[in-house]
Amino acid sequence: MPSWNIHASLTKKILKENDPASQGIADVNNFKFGNLLPDVYVGYMVKDVSHTLRYIQTHFTNPEHIPIPGSDLFWETYIAPYISKGGVDSLTLGSWAHLETDATFNRAVRAFNKEHGIEPGNETRIRKQADFHLFGNSLDMDITIEPTDHLFEAAQNFAQYPIKIEDVEASLKAFENVKEKSKTEPMTDRYLLLSRRFMDDTLNGARENVEKGLATYAREVEAAGFALGSPKQKRAVAENVSDSLKRNRKPIDVGPKPEILFKDNEERASIEYEIARLKEKGLPDYFHTKDPS
Q1: Number of structural domains in the chain
Q2: pLDDT tens digits for 102-138?
Q3: Is 67:270 a contact under the CB 8 Å cutoff?
Q4: Residues 6+ apart with CB under 8 A from 244
Q5: Which domain holds residue 21?
């Protein structure tokens, strides 16, 4: 999947080249964090969160090689039902943007592999992720996300599952570390699977998809009689957040802290492990269905 460097760079471009308010983004800070949110509990990007969640659940996808995150399903579940009622909060919009970016990149990688006869598997995944890392380190990802009370509240009220305050703080610390590493790691043009042109073209495609989705969202909210940023719309969004919590917050598979999950196997949260676990029922499952609240 695209690194946080890529997500942060895309977010910065969208916010720089568009008026956030005109795209329905009422809280820029929360939108920025939303663009990282689906990765928080996977365990790879943030090593000291309180627990882990299955990647296939956080990204609405299936256990298959080069999975395509279900950005459309996320939209249909958490955004579309509330557009005619005034819209949703900026954190939810950012989370959708993350999934749409991931989906755009992975669809492109699938097409590339098919065109070049490259077989899926762990080796291909490692080469792909190395290229994402290389590309990400070449981008301007210098955005700031503040640990505000409003962010903490929105994170705890995220409809799919709550993000604890200490896990938001751990995520922001991890993000700052990613930013620092991107400034110090040596640059190279040696791609192992893809190419710089492929990455640039796909990033532009992802940005177009996200901007188109946000523009559609904003237009339809206003068409429903809610002026963006008005007191009426803000009240409606607060009511919609509460309603989505009641309707959409369901039990989810919860795993241990990353340090425990990865103690004997660093690949245990990967799609490859999930596929192998489903095929070989003897492999242990470290996740258990719980009420996320």
Answers
A1: 1
A2: 999 999 999 999 999 998 877 888 888 889 888 988 8
A3: no
A4: 78, 81, 82, 88, 159
A5: 4-290
